[in-house]
Amino acid sequence: MTVTDTGRGDGDGDGAAAGPAVECVGLSKRYGAVQALDQADLRINVGEVVGLVGQNGAGKSTLVNILCGVVTPDEGTVAIHGKPAATGHPRAMADAGIAVVSQEQSLVEQLTVWENVYLGRELTDPHSGLLRRAQMKAGAAALFERLDIGIDTGALVSDLPFATRQLVEIGRAIHQSGGKAGAILVLDEPTSGLSPRETEVLFSLIRNASKDATFLFVSHVLPDILSLCSRVIVCTNGRVVADRDVSDVTERDLHELMIGRARSADYYALDRQGTAISDERVLELVDGQRTGAFAGVHLTVRHGEVVGLAGIIGSGTSEVAAAIAGALPLDAGHMTVQGRTRRRWSVRDAIALGIRYLPPERRRDALFPHASVSRNIAISYLGDIRMAKGPLLDGGRESRLVGRLIQQVGLRPPDPKRMVGELSGGNQQKVVFARLLADGCAVAILDNPTRGVDVGTREEIYGMVRELASSGTGVILTSESIEELIGLSDRLVVLRSGAVVTEIPSPPQAKPTELEVLACM
Amino acid sequence: MKTSNPSAEAPAGTSTPGGGALDSARKGARSFLPVLALVVLFAFFSIMRPDFLSVASFQNIMRQGAFLALLALAGTTAILTGAIDLSVAANATLGGILVADLTGSIGIWPAILAALAACSVVGLINALVVIWLRVPSFLVTLGMLSVLDGISNQISGGSPIEFSTGALNTLVNEQSIPGIPNAALIAVVVVVLMTVLVFLTRLGRYIMAVGGNERAALLAGIPINSVKISSFVLGGLIAAIAGVVFTGQALNGVPEGADPSLLASIAAIVVGGTALSGGVGGPHRTLLGALVIIVLSSGMDIMSINPYVESIVYGLVVIAAVAVTIDRRRYGAIR
Question: Are A424 and B223 inside 8 Å of each other by CB?
């Protein structure tokens, strides 16, 4: 490896007493046609609590994944405590001192708190090889006492509430990196799912622990960032666009920095917006409730209308979309689609009602990677491509239907025999779109249709959304990008913590600004 | 403020390198390797032993190949859905025992119908347990294997069942087309029907979809439970046919008779290029795989290789074939 120690010589004149705990230089990462991270620099000094903000898709998670070794950067270096780190090796990054605390907790639920704290680094008696249980128990108790957190270290993790487990996880990370400013904790959206009180406890732990550890705090919740961090870094479109002391910025400044570049109005085909909206409701969700995801959600969609569900991750937008599609059953409430009311329905029932669903992660939720483009598209139309008599499918009908759809979505190259797993993200998404387009559905649910899609395909997808709407289909849309959501939607429904907080009209002549929408989220 | 450069985005339509190339390579290996293996093995044994090319040898290959192909076809549908049926061979044994046991009292065709029905019910039970109790299919069918052996031994009293074999002998061993035993014709008909089913019917597409990506199949509105049930029942039905052919060739009902062929049948499936991870392959490939295995086994026979060595070879072939065909991204075996 040719990495040299870049941490010392470039004289940033930093005010912190200690040197950098993490220094990233020129990190770039490309996924197919999407530049997820573009020459990003990042420096965190020992003992600092630094905030990292940005819209979804701005590069935050790529940066976090590089730091924890899950993603290997195409270019650039990471140095930890001044030593070059082996990027792309989770174990090496962990050994160097980086620990990530995310929504997916890594505690072993069947073990106690102290067992988790010492997991993989158990203390044993050198003579007998037996575990030194008493010593480990005392060590764990001392750890949480020092962090000023009252936890019964003998409790089973599965018995602890979510917020407390979050604290245990942080405690363990500090302990396992050996204390003494060695630990670098990346907290990925740690406050989502926490009550304000729990959040306050978490923050006091972080403040207490910052003498023992360094924190990178990734969050959508800007007030949290401003109250907790000393410095904030803003990512936009894969670049680090700002690095400021929190005393120098306001929430409004951060919003503006996160939004990034402006777009021309015709990008979202605004001239075609809202042409087919009728007064007739095509779908109505009444008092939709799903425990742990959303409650009391009332949503109406009219023919030809694009309704955007806006909200941060965990606000329930994706869950509401999945519930309408039949992928998540409701605990209470009902749905009426074109006069037909249902209390419980499966994906099949939803399809029978005229609902088509584009799920959020195409590789996981929608594609058959080893099958051809044709097979992937035809799977939704097998009833339409049968021979006039008998059970067999008609190859001629299949290739005509698929050929027409491939042209309609603009697949490149327009080859129905190509294996879907070999296509770029944009082309894969077009294949999924082709499943929605042939039969004039009543409602199309598009959960994040442009995720991981290149800019060119994005515009084509916007065109398809307009086409669906102008054919009278009611569209329910979510997106990682607020700008896109505003651009495409006729009306925004804003969710926060699983409840609808407001609706914002978004007609072509009077689009709300991103700041207005963000303020509600 | 910095803006990102749109020209840095690659044009749509370019495929992702790494993963795509690997997929292509594996896809190529799947289609090409079984044919190559067949040709190489054939050439090798012909050179080593010219009598490998005799009429008797070909007839032998057809006879054994018919049974193995049918047994492997019985296991193919479950594997295409991403499950596995380890009870196919024991199920075939049960079918064969039932035919031997019932022919004397109710006649050959009713006996065969009873075997078809019983083996299909076994498939149904396998599927229902997998679906309702959410137990992995390999465990359910491993348990079922033991259950079926017990039943077969119970029916037969643990020793071969003698019966009047005239009609069954005609059905399985006569040559309706000169030179080709009926068993081979049966196998060919079943392969053709299965291939049509898998590629040209809605059920077949659903089977491939469930094996290709179960979650995507569910979200596309495919009735995945019915698909699983159909695939196991179909497997049971074909296992019965394999059992009938087995008993017809052995000319008595042998408890645990077909059981030792389980590994060879799985070898045939994966050697043909059907991936254990599901959604890739098909019945036509299983026929090819069965031929490879049978040529290998007859060749080793004709070269008088110790049968214990054959067993070792099967084991190694299965492992090698799985290594070539499996989709590691979904099994996470490497991590």
Answer: no
